[in-house]
Specification:
This protein is mostly beta strands. The chain has no helices and eleven strands. The strands form two sheets. Strands 2, 4, 5, 6, 9, 10 and 11 form a seven-stranded mixed β-sheet that branches. Strands 1-3-8-7 form a four-stranded antiparallel β-sheet, with no helix packed on it. β7 (67-72) and β8 form a beta hairpin.
Length: 119
């Protein structure tokens, strides 16, 4: 079993910053790549950023240069630093982790944390 605890969402003004955190816990599995996705009302869920255990990152085009993903492997925790927030960043942000046992791998989603950017 895997658990994800997300935190850090909220209401901010355009141009502000927020930092999201997501901590994974498991007694059985290895935590592999972790990442953030977001979904705005009426839109499909989209990639925000992912990061491997080795630190390789991948960003969605709309957040490149503004958001930074990082992780602490010892804590199985991923962070998303969001700068220069725009109203179009308003969405529910979901943490995702891939986890494995031997050759078998699956992924798990958090409950989501709301980010609202509005003046």
């Amino acid at each position: 079993q895997v658990q994800l605890v997300e935190s850090g969402g909220g209401l901010v003004q355009p141009g502000a910053s927020l930092r999201l955190s997501c901590a994974a816990s498991t007694r059985t599995f290895s935590i592999n790549a972790m990442g953030w996705y977001r979904q705005a009302p009426g839109k499909q869920r989209e990639l925000v950023a992912t990061i491997t255990t080795g630190g390789t990152t991948n960003y969605g085009d709309s957040v490149k240069g503004r958001f930074t993903i990082s992780r602490d492997n010892a804590k199985n925790t991923v962070y998303l630093q969001m700068n220069s927030l725009k109203p179009e960043d308003t969405a529910k942000y979901y943490c995702n982790t891939k986890y494995s046992l031997g050759d078998w791998e699956d992924d798990y989603w958090g409950q989501g944390t709301q980010v609202t950017v509005s003046s």
